[in-house]
Amino acid sequence: MVGPLLGDDGVTRCPWAGPTASVMRDYHDTEWGTRVHGEAAYLERLTLEAFQSGLSWSTILLKREAFREVFCGFDAERIAAFDDADQARLMGEVRIVRNRLKIAAAVTNARATLALREREGLEAFVLSFAPADRPAYDDTATMATTSAESAALSKALKKAGFAFVGPTTMYALMEALGLFDPHLTGCFRRGGEPR
């Protein structure tokens, strides 16, 4: 059980951000739990959460710019047009996580994102699963990794044709996108308004 930790800069943060300056701390301080807007921003986070499955988040953050480049700025139309040759090219791209199933899922999810345009669109779809009750955790032992809402989002996305969108991955997505405040009580970011 770990509560918020005091960093070397005198600021108290969620413990996973680390006590010293790092890509994780920067992400915690500027992005995690903050609302983003637009289809590409949502598709990026959905894609990166899927690629993170089984890996450390720092690995994904360190490769993020390469992911943005090879996935065309997460433009759903461009990714949806990827064919077998494009997917084989990505398997040879050493700057990203090379996993055939996750690469295929990124293309599948871009195609499903395009289909959602006929309805409310990816952003509104995901936001519709925001929990009514906003959790507040004091330490890592009490933090959840899934919720009824993340399970429902997972099920709905699968029904809409998405892949690699399990309940745990969707809970992490909901945290990252600020569908609720994921910061521990005592973290300097706790209670900040979604931007």
UniProtKB/TrEMBL annotation:
UniProt-listed InterPro entries: Adenine_glyco (IPR005019), DNA-3mA_glycosylase (IPR052891), DNA_glycosylase (IPR011257)
Gene3D superfamilies: Hypothetical protein, domain 2
SUPFAM superfamilies named among the record's database cross-references: DNA-glycosylase
Signal peptide extent: none
Pfam family name, one: Adenine_glyco
Protein name: DNA-3-methyladenine glycosylase I
Organism expressing this protein natively: Nocardioides plantarum
